[in-house]
Amino acid sequence: MNDKGNMDQGQVIQRQFSPVHTAGTEAHSSGAGGGYVLRISVVAALGGLLFGYDTAIISGAIPFIRPYFHLDEYSLGWAVSSILIGCGAGAAAAGIAADRFGRRITLMLCALLFALSGIGAGLSTGLSLFIVFRMAGGIGVGAAAIVSPLYIAETAPPDRRGRLVALYQLAIVAGILLAYLSNFILAGIGDSSWRWMFASQALPSVLFGLMLLLVPETPRWLVKKGRLVEARRILSKTMDPASCESTLGAIQDSFRNEGRAVWSELCSKKYLPVVTLGIFIAVFQQITGINVVLYYAPVLFKDTGMDDSASLLQTVGIGLVNVAATVISITLVDRIGRKLLLKTGSGLMGLSLAAMALCFRYHYFQHYVILCAMLVYVGAFGATWGAVAWVYLSEIFPNRIRGLAMSVATLALWLADFIVTYTFPVMQARAGNALTFSAYAVFCGAALIYVLVKIPETRGKSLEEMETLFLK
Questions:
Q1: b/e per residue, 129-160, with b = 16+ CB within 10 A?
Q2: Residue 358 scores a pLDDT above 60
Q3: Membrane-spanning regions, if any (predicted)?
């Protein structure tokens, strides 16, 4: 990844918290340009909607592709998790593309990959071709996971940044819900319904690409490319003239005054502790089992005796709870703090997984206990780890290494997601659902201990204050 491109994300956030930028922030707070910033942030966040849609559409297709491709537990895990290999590649390439072509053009390329991968997967007649297209979609997912928040970070005022960045997670869960609804509607077509499930993602992909035509490039990238007139015009829509000029000058200064970070610095004594902290946050978000529920929910419900239609309908309920919980997270993250939410989420998720393990152990599937436990688990994740982990990762890294460290943490997240997603069918077949969910519950307990011991609160602190907090 281009070091200078990674540096830019940290630079712009640093300048947003500098005194010279405060005037611009006050303009936002008083309403100047607030609607404009919200609109372009919403469009950028829609990259998360395609993220959620592309990754979750597989859940409804599993009952159909398993017999079609003759999948055992190993090949099923590979078919479902292969997209995450593409995610890792997309995350690695996103910085170079965003730096060279711009944030907006890179997101347009993501939209194109989303559309082509959906159509290609739907038309696939062999497992190898199906996996190739899923990986191609994963490249778009991985790139959007970095570029969409980056776009928002470079345009949002600091007093609203936490909520606007959280919009990205809201878009992800909205995409997951949309995928569940699509699966439920299309499941009745017949044995070929899985093809329409994948192909359906072309429609939101095209809409996202068209909406990107209506938003500008970020002022930060424009200044970097020497296009000051365009950058000034965009900044003038978000703040008063005096703040516009001072902010533009601060951005220009940042290119002259900031050094260039290198990968080796991440392993230095100064930065390694905070980088390690970020990696643990990213990994815990995944190894506590969330994507097992999101990807394999219909399979789990069928194990309790439900038919395909009832399984897909209850999966829609999971999507609705996920969206509602994320909205709650957006309202709480700047009020009660990150650490309390992470602690509460770890505890509730662990208890819910333990309840599910007991139900599978004793084959107790009455009174919707499994469904209720799963809904509590998904709700707890959505209100805590789902959104808060992304917000926390965007805050803790020092400005100098922010982009590089985010890339490492995001790659760790995708690798953890891949391992969990790939191994679940194998663990389910070899150890059973009870032991599998017990293992995820233990990981929730480990996450709780780690948060209690290692995670400091960051609410209300500027990035400069956090550098003092994390760099001992």
A1: ebbbbbbbbbbbbbbbbbbbbbbbbbbbbbeb
A2: yes
A3: 36-64, 76-98, 105-123, 129-153, 165-190, 196-215, 274-297, 312-333, 340-362, 368-392, 404-425, 431-453
